[in-house]
Amino acid sequence: MNQVVRFSEFAEAESLAEPSETYRVPFAQSGAFVCKFIIGEPSEGALCCGAPVADGKSWCAFHRRIVFEPSRPPRVR
After folding, report:
1. 3-state secondary structure of 48
2. Starting from the edge strand earliest in sequence, which strands make up the sheet with 25-26, in order?
3. What string of H, E and C letters represents the secondary structure of 22-40?
4. Which of 2, 31, 34, 37 has its CB 3.0 to 4.6 Å from that of 63, i.e. a possible disulfide?
5. How many domains does the chain have?
6. pLDDT: which is higher, 10 or 73
7. In whole angstroms, how far apart are CA 43 and each of 1, 12, 22, 53?
8. Is 47 helix (H, G, I), strand (E, B) or coil?
9. pLDDT averaged over every residue in the chain
10. Is residue 76 situated within a structural domain?
């Protein structure tokens, strides 16, 4: 699955360390408080990041910076 990623967001995500591969877990077995970012192609046996998430969000800080686009200021007409 292709995702649109702006270069600026990618550069910001690079400042954070990517979570270790040791956290990765099959998506179907991921529990609460772990990053649900799918690594690779989504499929029946998809792996998710699995890094601990303390704030109850769906993604760790590294992947959240890739997934979400920062809000833009309102346009003045």
Report:
1. strand
2. 25-26, 47-48, 38-39
3. HHCEEHHHCCCCECCCEEC
4. 37
5. 1
6. 73
7. 10, 28, 20, 23
8. strand
9. 77
10. no
Is 77 inside a domain boundary?
no
At residue 52, what is the residue type?
Answer: P
Contact status, residue 62 vs residue 13, Cβ threshold 8 Å: yes
Strand partners, 52: 34
Q: What pTM, to 2 d.p., does this model score?
A: 0.64
User: Is 1 a domain residue?
Assistant: no
Euclidean distance between CA atoms 41 and 36, whole angstroms? 13
Look up the domain containing 19 and give its range: 7-67
* Confidence check: pLDDT of 76 > 70: yes
Instruction: Using the Cα atoms of residue 62, residue 70, residue 14 and residue 46 in order, give the sign of their dihedral.
Output: positive
The pLDDT assigned to 5 comes to 46
In the structure encoding, which two tokens stand for residue 42, read together? 């989504």
Structure confidence by residue, pLDDT tens digits, 48-64: 999 998 777 888 988 88
